[in-house]
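Hello support,

Our group uses your service weekly, and this is the first time we've seen a run hang past the timeout. The protein is Triosephosphate isomerase. I'm not sure whether the cause is the sequence or the server load. Input pasted verbatim:
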Amino acid sequence: MSIRRKLIAGNWKMNGLKAGSAELASALVANWTSGAPPACDVLVCPPFPLIVPVAAALAGSGIAVGAQDCHARPAGAHTGDVAAPLLADLGCAAVIVGHSERRADHGETDATVKAKAEAALAAGMIAIVCVGETLEQREAGRTLEVNTSQLRGSLPAGATPANTVIAYEPVWAIGTGRVATPAQAQEVHAVLRAELASLLGVESAAATRILYGGSMKPDNAAELLSLPDVDGGLIGGASLKAADFWAIVTAC
Ligand code: PGA
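Update from on-call engineer: The timeout came from a worker crash unrelated to the input. Re-ran successfully.
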C-alpha cells in the first residue's frame, strides 16, 4: 500500500459554457454521494470564469476545485492575467502550472513555471507542476533528460509533498488517443522520483505524488494507476464526461 493517496484531477481546458459546466459538476457530485467515498482525492479545474459556479455546485461534496494557470505576481498591472491569491479566495485548492499547452502557446519557460508554482504555494494552494517531452525529443532519445531538466527548473522553492504535485504528461499523448505504455510511464515516473530525491530528499520524494496525463481513459486507467510510481491522473478529454471521469476515479 502506497503512502501516497492518489489524486485524479480533471483539466477541462478551454471547454464548456455556464450551464453545461454546472451540469457536469452536479453529475460528479451525484456520483460522489451515491457510492462509497472514492479511494483518491478528486479535483476539477474549469476555465477561470467557471470556477465560481463550479465551486458552488461542488460545495458540500469532497470534490475540490482548482485552476489551470495563475500569474507569478500576487497583484498588479497584468491585463488579462489572474492572480493566485484571487484563485485561493474563490476556493481553489490547487493550480496547474506549466502545462505543455501553456509552455507552447504562451512561451512559458521553466523559470516562469517555477515562479507561478511559488505564487500558488504563497497563496496556500497546491501547485501541480507539469513536465513532459515532445515526440521529437522522445525519438531523439532525450526523454529522461528533458523531463528531469524541466523538473529541476520548474520545482518551486519550498516544495513539500503536501503542497506540490508533479504531472508527467508526454506531449505526444495529450489529446491524441495515443497513451504512454505502462512501461514508458513507469520509467519516467521512477526517474522523476529519483530526481525529486536528489532535490528534496528521499523521504519527501517517496511522499510526493506524480500524476500521469495524456489520453488517460476509463479503459486504460486501472493499468496506469496500478504502476508503482503513478499516483493519479491529470485527465483532459475524459474529464468532460461525468461517467468517464468517474470511471477513472473508481479505478483508483
Ligand atoms: P488528455 O489531456 O487527457 O485529453 O490527453 C491531458 C492533459 O493535457 O492534461
